[in-house]
Design goal:
5 helices, elongated, alpha+beta, 3-stranded antiparallel β-sheet, 199 residues, 22% strand, two-stranded antiparallel sheet
Length: 199
């Protein structure tokens, strides 16, 4: 009888240990899976902000460091819709004539085909509980030439909010150790780059 009870206790302890071992293995796996899913959404926001900045610069010869300005620009500015037709006087068929056939709002051009996008809140980091992207713009000197630059950042602590805090701390520390930004970002305030750090 005592032997049977002892065996049952051993089986229960083994089952508990197996559960905790499995949970400890799966914790970082599940964290990384959820992290990737969230990053996919945040990256799309960063790409959209970058595209809006590109168009803003085309029309204003500089980037903007203000989301209010950028959102107002997407709301009100229009870009020409250009039709290119071959030049009838060109026998080589290499020259074209550009004909403006109309105008389209910047927001309509940027977000055509994207469902459920509210660009009026493009400054809010998804999953962050309302925290805003860090946006900067300015001019740096490279090779004696002034270059317009911009940068948009979202730290791990914002878009991974609500997930395992210790794993977020570890992730941030490992990035800082490698002298890399602890989060997602696009552009740079020190280099003439518009790349994202995920690319």
């Amino acid at each position: 009888m005592k032997k049977t009870i002892f065996q049952i206790i051993l089986i229960v302890i083994a089952a508990i240990l197996a559960y905790y071992t499995y949970a400890s293995i799966m914790q970082p796996v599940n964290f990384n899976k959820q992290k990737r899913a969230r990053e996919k959404v945040v990256i799309q926001y960063l790409k959209d902000i970058r595209s809006a900045e590109f168009i803003y610069k085309q029309l204003n010869n500089e980037y903007t460091g203000s989301f209010d300005t950028l959102i107002h620009f997407m709301d009100s500015a229009q870009i020409p819709v250009v039709r290119m037709i071959p030049d009838p006087n060109d026998t080589t068929y290499t020259l074209t004539i550009n004909d403006t056939v109309g105008y389209v709002k910047v927001a309509d051009s940027l977000f055509r085909g994207q469902k459920n996008v509210d660009y009026h809140h493009i400054d809010i980091i998804p999953f962050s509980g309302g925290k805003k992207f860090q946006l900067k713009a300015g001019v740096i000197k490279k090779g004696g030439v002034n270059v317009n630059v911009f940068e948009v950042k979202a730290p791990f602590s914002t878009y991974l909010k609500g997930m395992d805090e210790q794993l977020i701390v570890n992730l941030s520390a490992s990035r800082k150790e490698l002298k890399k930004y602890a989060g997602l970002k696009v552009g740079s305030m020190t280099e003439p780059s518009t790349d994202g750090n995920w690319e």
